[in-house]
Amino acid sequence: FKGDDTCEYLLSSGRFLGDKVWQPHSCMMHKYKNSEAKNCLIDKHIAFIGDSRIRQLFYSFIKLINPQVKEEGNKHGNIPFEDKSASIRVDFLWYPEVNGSMRQRIKSWTEAATAKPHIIVAGAATWSIKIHNGSNEALTQYKINITSIAPLLEKLAKSSDVYWVLQDPVYEDILSESRKMITNEKIDAYNEAAVRILNSSSRNSKAKVKVFSVSKLIAQETIMKSSDGLHLPESSRETNAMILMNVYCNKILKPIDGSCCQPRPPLTLIQKLAFCFFTLSFIGYLIINLIHRNNYRKNKPCTDLENGEEKKPAISTPTTSTLEMLLHSFCKLGLIMTYFYLCDRANLFMKENKFYTHSSFFIPIIYILVLGVFYTENTKETKVLNREQTDEWKGWMQLVILIYHISGASTFLPVYMHIRVLVAAYLFQTGYGHFSYFWIKGDFGVYRVCQVLFRLNFLVVVLCIVMDRPYQFYYFVPLVTVWFMIIYATLAIWPQIVQKKANGNCFWHFGLLLKLICLLAFIFFLSYSQGAFEKIFSFWPLSKCFELNGNVYEWWFRWKLDRYVVFHGMLFAFIYLALQKRQVLSEGKGDPLFSTRVSNALLFISVASFLTYSVWASSCKNKTDCNELHPSVSVVQILAFILIRNIPGYVRSVYSSFFAWFGKISLELFICQYHIWLAADTKGILVLIPGYPMLNVMVSTFIFVCVAHEISQITNDLAQIVVPKDNPTLLKRLLCMAGFFSGLLLFSAIQDQSRH
Predict the structure, then answer these.
(1) What is the CATH T-level fold of the domain 6-253, as seen in this structure?
(2) Which listed residue (13, 52, 148, 159) is catalytic?
(3) Closest Cα partner for 428 from 571, 271, 322, 543?
(4) Which of 25, 30, 231, 568 is catalytic?
(5) Does 709 participate in catalysis according to the annotation?
(6) Interval 233-237 mean pLDDT
(7) Which one of 423, 454, 534, 556 is most buried, by most CB atoms within 10 A?
(8) Contact (CB, 8 A) for 336 and 668
(9) What angle do CA 279, 265, 333 make, to 5 degrees?
(10) pLDDT-derived band at 202, boundaries 50, 70, 90
(11) 228 is catalytic
């Protein structure tokens, strides 16, 4: 750990991921768009001073501001550039040697009454080697000249960002005869002199000339592609320009996926209060534990000295109280949240960009599928979508989604479209599961609603507080929460139609279908009325839950993407339960679901439909167009999978306990990955062990899964305490929760005001 400043890593170290993707050591680099570059550099003056290599860097830099710029003009002269829309001025000043002329130019900036350049990028050496035929006298003179320039640069560094670009290696085999004296040995000598002399008089000062040495590493990998052996290929120049942009702009714009050069965000008021709460919980638990231990010692059985028999204490050992369980859960949660904060908010652990390759996605997929098949067991019941089967389904889908996220496979459209089906399948299960419960049990009580809402939202609410993130950031939880409330409202409003009532009169089945049709019409209306949707969710305090970056567009997009699949899940549950009640299905162990002929026909149609959807998804060319079709067609592959999994009797009678174990903690896995497996809010990868990618993934994954499992247990324990079955007590708890969220809204408003 070398402190909070990751700029040093960005400027000096890194490696290539693939051919063109540069990965700085320990931090993430943001890829700046033209609009972002202009926004960062507005009203700024940047000066590039040096030789032809600096001129190359100058052109690559201004192309980040305006990609239409062409490399033309006097190569051995000054080149001005101006973007009037953002008042940006970038100048290239031709000074191919470190000599008196360059010193005079730099000195003029230190003495000028007018504003100095905000960014100065300087560097030169190859011309000195070429003109003086690589003589030792030229190197000596270079040291003298750079010694005279160094104090001036250090003086400028107090008010401007000053970078000295070290010389890149050359590809000696293809250098022209006039450049043969420029050898890598000579370049190393000049670089060594520059590094030793620069900042020598201000080693303990914060105002330092930043040595841009990363260009050397990039050149070592790419100089072989150079056209003349001296100048870098265009892709390498673009990487250098992007690094320069990250060094200056990350601390200004603070992009999520640009962790290099970003300071640790200050603790908010709510985060400080959360820290105090967890600390008090820890102290409280210790006190209660000590009291219990003391009581236990007092009541410990003792030996009668007269007859040698053991006497029993009059008072039995006290059992664990509710308060002790509560404080114990908060203590564990506090330790876990500390780990979350250290991983993704403090600059303690390293972060790296994702880089997608087919092997990084498909090899782990094959590996977990083999593991899943290996752990095959018999199910307790053989009904369609029984508990073990749905847990298994959630489990393997969650593992695939995790691999998709860490491998960066969203850049590969066919994989993206198949993952969209998996997310839709989760929502399908939401519709199927909750509809089945309300339909069969007829339990519309407050206890059931509170239990579901608590289990879904507890972890996310805690993370919103500790990690200072909006509720909508964890988009999947708001999605399933809102859909649960829609399902509840649809079935709970008058007339309440449940299976017991419908069995007495078939008319009620039509009543329920009418309710489902009304729900479909409501979904259809909202999906084609963005204005109405945004008005509903823009009302305070709903807006505090569903806004992201100041608007509800992200929520609208997420909701619209899978708008019909919950309805499909409800409809499937209704049809399945109706067929089951009329004993149309054969759900015995080893029996096919239908008659042999019907089962074979449906199995063939299902396999054909499944493959047809995969072919369509794999042939997608435009993400926007495919997303438009996805809500209507995703159900095809979901239903096909359900039929393939349940029609054959043997397949329905077994399940993978490996996948089912992960399925039981799938929600926690999905949420925890944001901060302790991935990094920078899912944009990068957490690095606990730098330099060993495979070992790092193994260690971080082990901790991540253990934490998710522990949080699942904590949530279950707290749900029993916070949401009791006793209605009067539950009502009091609900009033306390209302007070808690009111306080949270108040503190959030104070926090927002202080930020503005």
Answers:
(1) Rossmann fold (3.40.50)
(2) 52
(3) 571
(4) 231
(5) no
(6) 93
(7) 423
(8) no
(9) 30
(10) low
(11) yes
